[in-house]
Model the fold of this input.
Amino acid sequence: MNKSVVITGVSTGIGYDLAKNFISKGYMVFGSVRNEKDAGGLVDEFGDLFRPLIFDVTDYEAIDRAAGFVAGEVSDGITCLVNNAGIAVGGPLLHVKMEDFEYQFKVNVFGLMKVTQAFAPLLGARKNHPISPGRIIQISSVSGKIGFPFMGPYAGSKHAIEGLSESLRRELLLYGIDVIVVGPGAVKTPIWQKSKKETPGFENTPYSSAMLVFREKFIKSAVKNAIECDWLAKKIVSIAESERPRTRYTFASRKFANYFLPRILPPRIVDRALKKELGMDLN
Done:
């Protein structure tokens, strides 16, 4: 059985723990990092079952070179592609700079699709593929289904991933390649350290006080109750190995309150509750 996977964004967080857990089960992991220093450190740590791919997902030529390298290393293809790399841009939508908005989508959406296009032939999107077709796992978020205030750019990018993945799954029926979406809630990763910092540029907007409340009540609660990265990585590895996986998985702490309830309540009720909780009043 071929046991080779490509994972984007393995320097830290979910990607790092995914690489570690796949390697522990005997997989050859090709993991993307953005610089030689990170590559060297991971090679030293993970050993012979790890191959670094040095590219930023916004660098399309580098992605093509990486796909060519993997093709040379694993001529019969790969088992799985995990599109994990991503960033989070926040702020009130009326005041987010368009260049920041564009970068959010360039990383989370366009980069993801470029990686998918580049590695799809190694998963079986070609004639006479020598092994069984592989599968693609897209790391989305609960924000791919729910749009919280001040997380619009991020939520928009994750909603885009959800829609693209559904279309892609149905198009790849031609080749037998499966596409699975994993939408976790808050995960204990370095992204939360960044979120604790003040977001510059919004202090003088009408949303400044509501953003402070959001950070204190919602972000702190998310950090406190975030799921463990290693636990999530093990779940994703089991999905990659499952004979009959579902098309989408949600993993979140306090799942009913944080995921199901905001989706089953009438949207206007959720709107009013958020407005009251955040103190969103011009007066």
